[in-house]
């Protein structure tokens, strides 16, 4: 069952009922100012950092689940309704929500009054614009009262939801004409403020929540809206809000448009001498003037559309498969941008107050984003590397506003360092910008500790190389990619196994997964060394990688598949000898991606075992059999009920690893089948089972052991987006950025048909025509560039050349 449909021409998903199984959301904003917006207008806004600079308030765990947002109430002859239906919940006669690229559009009507609400964040302004048009479709004049409503958050979202004894006394506002300023200061007196304005005179306003809603009321039918009158309240403490009242008369057929704006401003840094609560309104005035007519707002909207058209044109495929084209050209790239911006901070499942930017998460997000805006990827790499410690280990997370490592979470996840090499090598392959390796980058953000970025990679590599266990496999530390595999918790005090801080390394627990990463990214490190004149290091890397490869063959192979790990007592994890959790997905995917066991015939066996033991109709589970009891020696993984999350859920993130691994072996049908099973567009039809947004990936789908098999959770912020884009664009469609140019090497189902790809790469346009005879899954028979046959399948880079026309014959 579906709750809407794709509109590929408009690059939108059209939701046709407000009653979706979960709130189906979208993200507005691409740089600093962001909003989350659901298909019933729920959500919130923040500037740069969802924890520290939260602009509007949202209540997670609320009832109804999604009942705070930027709302517009219409009182039309006593009937109160909202364009997105919430929070009144009044059923409208028509309803449509279109989530597009950086904007959402609501179209609804009630009693012949039509509302069109367009919400977006302009490309380069710290504000959200809401254009609301009301149209009278009846044949009599209508007197309508329109109310806006946002509830301010007192900036620090954690404090805002906990420190009431203080917060209920600090709220301050100021009102000038139609602009309501929220100027509550946070403790550090950061001198920022926000405002909510509309480009029309208002009859009245409210800034006190109690005055607007009526003390003790919810926000479904505010008292002011019922009585058609705000009371011009000025909040002092308690709960500051911004509500405008606009009374209007619409003749039959007449329509009126209002431009609302929620903005964020900073006082200039030179006003330290001013009283703390004085805000300078000039920055707000300038911002307001940029968008204070419908024409100006629509010009900004057109600019946003062009921005996205230009970005997406960097990778565009035309094939005979609508799912592939839709996901590759629109939604997968879009989600890559969102995950790049948000890491794992703010979604409807991540409160914005917990995880900031993850070291491993952001490094992986970058893999799917680097082709879109390489300059921002560059900046991100420097930010991430700046949180590394001098020994190569790293803070697991950092705060986006301060860019400082998060002390509460600390370090000790031993996969983290190697992800930095993954990110930098992807950046170098995309851009050829070796200059980044010379950038001075500090350790732990400490001034004076700067060394060239290259040294950080060197530290990453050596951190793993020098932290090996008894089987010569890398020590796992607190966990590797699988956060819940806490193999050293056995050695901590009883009852402490859930702790998130603690000894950064246990005695001996080892990870086959990190070993595979080391082989994969160690090879990249060697390449980087060779290209930067570090021959000795390159040799050292080559030999350490060879040793690791051997260690995996010697101690990481279980007979039919790769082992997952050794626990702190050196017992096997993910082995046929285990009582539960006999096989895990991660080492199968990563070992084969790293080509471990390919020559020895093990790789094929490992992937066959994946299909045999882990595959379901909804995707591949992370492990089997699920843990049915708590295993002290394994930690959090066994704390989940069977079939959920890391305990045998279908963890979407590592499904593309299997698909890429299949492509390494040239098995196109199998590679594509893995892709297809979790692909949003392919599974749109089962939206009632899947329940999260059908246009983007979720972190997890409940596995076969779960009561709710097939149901997804944690949509949007998942490494699945980036890894799937790598899988689709590089492994399946075969467009592979390499250090010295673009290579083409598709791996597709036997009957996929030919395809055309346009790719922007290193300041040139590539037009690639791939001819694929039926029956062929992988292999390039010949390749022509601008009509001339070339040797191999890598397009030679010609300095200054702006266009490459490439024909590839598979076979
Ligand atoms: C997992 C969560 C887990 C957390 C612990 C996450 O990556 O997905 O389920 O509770 O790590 O740190
Ligand atoms: O690898 C982690 C990631 O960092 C956060 N989400 C869950 C993944 C698996 O545990």
From TrEMBL:
Q: Show the coiled coil region(s).
A: none
Tell me which InterPro entries the record gives: 6-hairpin_glycosidase_sf, 6hp_glycosidase-like_sf, Gal_mutarotase_sf_dom, GH65_N, GH94_catalytic, GH94_Enzymes, GH94N_CBP, Glyco_hydrolase_94_b-supersand
Which GO biological process annotations does it have? Answer: carbohydrate metabolic process
Q: Does the keyword Transcription apply?
A: no
One Pfam family from the UniProt entry? GH94_b-supersand
Q: What class of enzyme is it?
A: transferase
The residue ranges of the Glycosyl hydrolase 94 supersandwich domain are 11-277
What are the protein's UniProt keywords? Glycosyltransferase, Transferase
Molecular function terms, GO-annotated: carbohydrate binding; cellobiose phosphorylase activity
* Ranges of residues in domain Glycosyl hydrolase 94 catalytic: 307-734
Q: What is its EC number?
A: 2.4.1.20
* Name used for this protein in its record: Cellobiose phosphorylase
Q: Lineage in the entry? A: Bacteria, Bacillati, Bacillota, Clostridia, Lachnospirales
